[in-house]
Amino acid sequence: MLLTISTTVRPATDLGFLLHKHPDRVQEFGQSYGVARVLYPEAGEERCTAALMLDVDPIRLVRSRDRATPDYTLGQYVNDRPYAASSLLAVALADVFRTARTGRCASRPELAAGPIPLEITLPVLPCRGGPGLAHRLFEPLGWRVEATALPLDEEFPEWGDSRYVRLVLRGEVRLADALNQLYVLLPVLDDAKHYWVAPDEVDKLIRAGGSWLASHPDRGLITRRYLGRRWALTRTAFARLAEIGDDVEEDLEPPVEEDPAAEVATGDHARKDGEDTAAERAAEEGSVGEDLAEKEYAGRSGPASGASQEGSSPAGAVRRPLNTLRLEAVLATLEGLDASTVIDLGCGSGRLVGALLERPRFTRVTGVDVSSRALAFAARRLKLDRMPERRRERLELFQGALTYTDARFAGYDAAVLMEVVEHVDPPRLDALERVVFGAARPGHVIVTTPNVEHNVRYESLDGMRHPDHRFEWTRAEFRAWAAKVCGEYGYRVEFLPIGDDDPEVGPPTQMALFGLAGASGGSGGTEGSAGTGGVVSAAGHTSVRGPVSVNTDGHAGAGDAGGGDD
Ligand code: SAH
To answer: Cβ atoms within 10 A of the Cβ of 328, count?
Structure first.
């Protein structure tokens, strides 16, 4: 099993610093199923290549299996594992280049931090889905991909291709990202049918995929395959990704061929972790024990990322994803407002719209988004084509941009902008303010947005939570913006936390509830009346924070309506 990594950065031998492996030596690393070696077939100023070779001992591989699941077939001794770059190589890579994967390099920090010219070659890679899948998975990450199907037998071309490809990746990529991508994607391409998936695989996936997986167009397929199609774990991973990005929800739709009910547990062996897990996985373990694994995960009180949002059970055992808490907070706030007509501005895949339709008190529910793809998705999620007439009459979905005045936005008790403002370019924000607060002028506006101060609690996050975010605000910045809006358009505002309100850095999501000054009910009433019906906090109990009202002198602002936005 072989993987080579080449660079032409000058001097190319700096690759040794980045990988933390000296180019002059052959180094060995024992694995529970064999030996990994790192050596440099070439190490010059212009070009340097590091090779990771893995010798798998099939006997050790068999011995490291779970003894409780005896397997007397020949297949456990005679298989492709010693030859094909699969999950075993991924695990060896993760182990041998552990420091390089973090992107830390004291002697060459700038080189480790940025993209460098790289060429990665895998001569034999099992690839279920053929060369096309390798293109699909690596190209969105910035690689030029050369994937060649290997024939079953060179002597007999008429037998056709094998499921193996020769893969060459070329591109300007940060070395740590490249290593993490290989770590996740090698087993995904291999997609061995049965392998052990331990509860900590979700952590490993999130850690390695944190910065690129949430926005990968095939994140659904990657996550499902990485987790060996264990549906409950896949859900957990999506929930975690959803905390980092926002609209990952769409991938939660189970693909047709993967029926969660079909996942039958056949054993209950407690498991260690680490390399054994990998060895067993590679040995194409049966599905023993996965049910326990899932329960163990669900029973842990919060992820490694530290962004724990725990539910209300006494042991804090049930952890609910942030996008669920957000939805509940917005629903509770709308219910507390006595609003019956609601427009969801930037409705995405229509989760809030769907929840509002479930509640008959909302007599008119509208979803707007600039993205036709999001709207098509929402229509599918809401089963628009099969929706009963009475419900259908309460619903409207249409395409629109929040930075252009639109008469269709007007006439609602409340408007919601849930995780939307941060997607708007800062110079366009004032247009959005004019359109929503100036022209549409609903009685209430609910705005939620990430609290950037909380990002330090996400272990694997560097940069913003979602690649499409144009900015993320601190609590003070959000308050300053809201106060400005109130001053210009005659609203009052109060602020509520969503998720764990961390004493140091605040909650992961911040929410502002605006009310038209002078109107009655909710935050629009007298100063100090929260009237929001409370907000579901991370601990699962209802709390009303504040209100931190910003009073304005009642400037109506209606005269500005629609003026000047383009
Ligand atoms: N509110 C949803 C979706 C948030 S993602 C949720 O909380 O899950 C942000 C959404 O805002 C995307 O669907 C995006 O298409 C939409 N959006 C971004 N800028 C917009 C604009 N200028 N006008 C309308 N929609 C916009």
So the answer is: 17
Pairwise CA distance, residues 93 & 287, whole Å: 25
Ligand 1, atom nearest to 416 Cα = 1
Q: Is 62 helix (H, G, I), strand (E, B) or coil?
A: helix
DSSP string, 145-174: EEEEEEES-TT-GGG-EEEEEEEEEEEEEE
Query: Which is nearest to 349 in space by CA: 379, 385, 388?
Result: 379
For ligand 1, whether the C-beta of 203 sits within 6 Å is no
Whether the predicted model's global pTM rises above the 0.90 cut: no
Q: Find the 367 Cα to ligand 1 centroid distance in Å.
A: 10
At residue 537 the predicted structure's pLDDT band, cuts being 50, 70 and 90, is very low
Tell me the β-bridge partners of 147. 167
Q: Is residue 221 within 8 Å of residue 253, measured between CB atoms? A: no
Say how many Å lie between the CA of residue 20 and the centre of ligand 1.
Answer: 43
Q: Is any ligand 1 atom within 6 A of the Cβ of residue 384?
A: no
Higher pLDDT residue, 365 or 84?
365
CB of 348 within 6 A of ligand 1: the answer is yes
Token pair recorded at residue 39: 């050596």
Q: Is the CB of 369 within 6 Å of ligand 1? A: yes
255 falls in which pLDDT band (50, 70, 90)? very low
Contact 119, 310 (CB under 8 A): no
Query: Of 162, 158, 157, nearest to 131 (Cα)?
Result: 162
Tens-place pLDDT, residues 474-495: 999 999 999 999 999 999 999 9
Is any ligand 1 atom within 6 A of the Cβ of residue 354?
Answer: no
HEC readout, 512-560: EEEEECCCCCHHHCCCCCCCCCCEECCCCCEECCCCCCCCCCCCCCHHH
Q: Locate 440 and state its tokens.
A: 């549409």
Residue whose CB lies within 8 A of the most ligand 1 atoms, among 248, 369, 397, for a mutation test: 369
- Nearest C-alpha to atom 11 of ligand 1 is from which residue? 346
- With a 6 Å cutoff on the Cβ, whether 250 touches ligand 1 is no
Banded pLDDT at 275 (limits 50, 70, 90):
very low
